[in-house]
Amino acid sequence: QVQLVESGGGLVQPGGSLRLSCAASGFTLDYYAIGWFRQAPGKEREGVSCIRGSDGSTYDADSVKGRFTISRDNAKNTVYLQMNSLKPEDTAVYYCAADEGWFETVQAMCVMTPIVYENVYWGQGTQVTVSS
Length: 132
Hints:
By secondary structure, the protein is mostly beta strands. The protein contains one helix and eleven strands; from the N terminus they run E-E-E-E-E-E-E-E-E-H-E-E. Strands 2, 4, 5, 6, 9, 10 and 11 form a seven-stranded mixed beta sheet that branches. The longest helix is centred in the last third of the chain and has 5 residues, at about 105-110.
């Protein structure tokens, strides 16, 4: 059974850093693409960063380029999202998702629309709040 568990969220001041973890079970990262998504109150869910299991290629949304870094540790079957220089607008619930091959590229995964959410596995989310 595929399961994703996010952790590492919390309250941080603007300019601070957090590292989110997405622990996967029931499958190995080598064959899946993993993405981080976020949803702020009253807004649609948006893709943040995605990484492909087969070759490690990544995609980052323009809003986080240069600040967020996605990485994976296959030995721990875990994907991380290092978030630096956090801004109040980064406040959201952050979710990780696993794609077995529905999307051809990590970019396609990261920009997916709600109609295809059911084609990937989702974690339960972790809250990130950036506030002074």
